[in-house]
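Box 3.1 A note on notation
Throughout this textbook, protein chains are presented in two layers. The first layer is the amino acid sequence; the second is a token string describing backbone geometry. Keep the layers aligned when reading.
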Amino acid sequence: MVKRVVTSIITVAVLLGVLVACGGSDSELAELRADLEELEEENNQKTTEVTEITNSAPEPIIDNAPESVHSASQFDESTDALLPIAQISIILDGAINPDELPYQREWMPASMMVIADDGIAHQGRVGLHVRGNTSRDFDKKSYAFETWDENDEDLDVTLLGLPAEEDWVLQGPFSDKTLIRNHLIYQLSRDIGRYAARTRFVELEINGDYRGVYVLMEKIKRDDVRVALPDGAALLKRDWVEGGEKFIQTTACQDELKVEWSDDIDEIVTRLDSIEAELLIGDFSSVDLGSFIDHMLLVEIGRNVDGYVLSTWITLSENDVLGMGPVWDYNGALGNASYFRAWETNGWHYQNPEFPGDNPNGFCWYEVLLENPEFLNLRRERWQIHRAGPWSDAAIEARIDGAIAVLEPAIERNFERWPLLGEVIWPNDLGAEDRTTYVDEVSYLKSWIKQRMGWMDLALSP
């Protein structure tokens, strides 16, 4: 109400200034001055009321996001467009067997060619290795790669219109037989102004062996064109704990995190402990509530089995504001897993009795927030805003249809190479054996999402 009154005051004051400048009549000026005095008196009354309420009530939650590292300004329509499917051919140096590539950071040298629009879009050197904590065991591997110069040194390059960088991921959808789950969730995140890895659909060939449809995507890292973090900020990840100097543990919540980027790891622990202590007594001034809510909504849309506890990125601003995101790894989400009741469209993922399974990390911060009525109100408001726009049923179906249209020329080739339709591939839900065609898989995805969004509409109704 105060905001509306202030807006009215500004409007009347502007009109008064215009009339004075243009020589308005005395009667018009007198009328506007009277209106202005009345509005100022009303504003003073409202301000007094708000002050009295504030002084007698708990301190309200303020969505105090910093200059957001997830800002929509980090990407634009030209780099976020759906392009026709491209082809990537990689030739490994020497006699390296593509099925025996090392896991994690032992880069195997190779040459790469990217073909798009019937022409060579990029040609150069790369280093390649297998990636993925669980997907590394799939027959269809996923890869991380670096782009190199002629001396096999790191080189930022633009690939298929994506901003220039050196670190990339080729994700090979295997258990996700729609081939689009990661792409879709990342798109829905960007649609609400939250950075997520931009993607391109490609067909991959290694040493002349056709490997099927892949999703070329940006690796999450600190960079002006990815997660833009100024000096003094930090990029953290909650995942399987491997040990080592980059892994830290908070004091109050005993949350184990990996510091992916920071100038001073020891200082990060101190800063997180301070924020955590404030959070646990109900002071949310150091929490980017908007990012926490949007991240939660995306986890819950997908009922992501890794949600909150694994593959979870976190930012700490230079001003000590804690934020959630970007989202990452939704291959087993959107009804595509057989544990944590992930196939169900009803209920909150965080309330299912199996959560968080064998990983106790990750939900302490949210547990505190979910006890606060104002946080719940803000979550409800943001849901309503998103559903009225980019997360409407029609908008989501259009995103799915757009991705399928891009993939259409390659779908048959992919499933000739990997004849998985109608098979249960971990972590597939048991119904996967009944979905024997690609159309079945897409129909299931659409139906599941629509039912899931419908349940969340009821749970988050005004």
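The mean pLDDT is 87. The first helix runs from residue 2 to 22.
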